[in-house]
Amino acid sequence: MARLQPVRGTHDILGDDMLRHRHIVETGRVIFARYGFSEWATPIFEETRVFARSLGETSDVVSKEMYSFQDRGGESLTLRPEGTASIARALVSNSLAQSLPQKIFYQGPMFRYERPQKGRYRQFHQIGAELIGAEGPLRDAETIAMARDFLVSLGLDEGIRLELNTLGDLSSRLAWREALVAYFRQHADQLSEESRTRLEANPLRILDSKSEQDRRLLADAPAFDDYLNDESRQFWDELRATLKAFGIAFVENPRIVRGLDYYSHTVFEFVTDKLGAQGTVLAGGRYEGLVEEMGGPAVPAIGWAAGIERLASLIELPEQKTTGIAIVPLGQEATLQGAAIAQRLRDRGMVVSIETRGAMKKRMDRIVKSGATHVVFLGDDDLQREVVQLRDLSTREQSEVSVSDIATVLENALSV
Ligand code: ATP
Ligand code: MG
Asked: Domain named Aminoacyl-transfer RNA synthetases class-II family profile: which ranges (predicted)?
């Protein structure tokens, strides 16, 4: 039988990759707490309708990327492709839509049937935040500030820029949409085939197109700025002023339209040039109809999500301070004594390994490589006298310590 491999587009997370993954989540937890956000976890699958309508029938995610299946009861379920719809559903299911604002973050696996390539998987992980009941631009700016702090804490302040855009309110969007459709109709022969289909279904998405052909046409397309109504313009002005007050630099990018249907006003992406076409590491925006879509009241919200794999490929792991203790018993009796000592040391919070395998030289090589700082040797002779030989690997000094004192001696040695 051929060797088993993970399913195409999925991957195992081991060793340093797992440390990176964990570091990202733990950094997020620390930063988000400063902004008063608390963590929620929702199931990784939901009724298909939780996603199908809310993300927009014509969005890439819904039209071709969802992992949907029927369970044994005949119900249509979907592995979650993103977190926001589930959080909105959970808010309503748990009757929390009356106690706003709710500041929530989440992290975990997401599933999309995409063509696997570097930085693009079918099971990947996201960490994200939602501020539900976000009354005005202050909340947008604050949620973006939190995202920026998170990236900075991961050491990613250089080489990442914040790109910002407004989609205005619905009436601004509709007016612009009409102008866009007229413009693209005029030039339909120059549009890519995919965009010609979008023209009817969702013309705004043409702005997001990666085709060179479409991009050339976009240069002269009607600018949204000319279609913003007063209310939308005021929101946009206030947002930019508030971001400046938070000390956050941004560039305006009218191309950012985001792939999902539920956004209005604010949309933004943190982008790096280091990952080629997969350069968006964190993205989000303001949305208004989603909670209502889930059967709750109409409440505005602002949120974002970041791809953990993409972040992991960019960060440096912080230096790990290792403080391990290796116990080296010589003989069967000594192994039992070693087990008892190991337990006492671990009870006091020390990191302990019991090294019984291989010739002494090999064992010592392995111990040094593990980053251990101290070795506790236990010979037959030592057993009878109830002592151990303690070696400090940094000074290479060795001393005899009584079994009853060893935990305290090590504790003192490690705390200096
Ligand atoms: P793209 O335009 O790259 O397809 P998207 O708009 O589909 O991105 P979002 O739904 O906004 O992405 O997800 C937020 C973040 O999650 C992305 O910026 C990216 O870092 C990450 N992400 C999205 N899809 C994948 C994937 N298939 N594999 C790995 N990470 C992903
Ligand atoms: Mg996508």
From this structure: 29-329
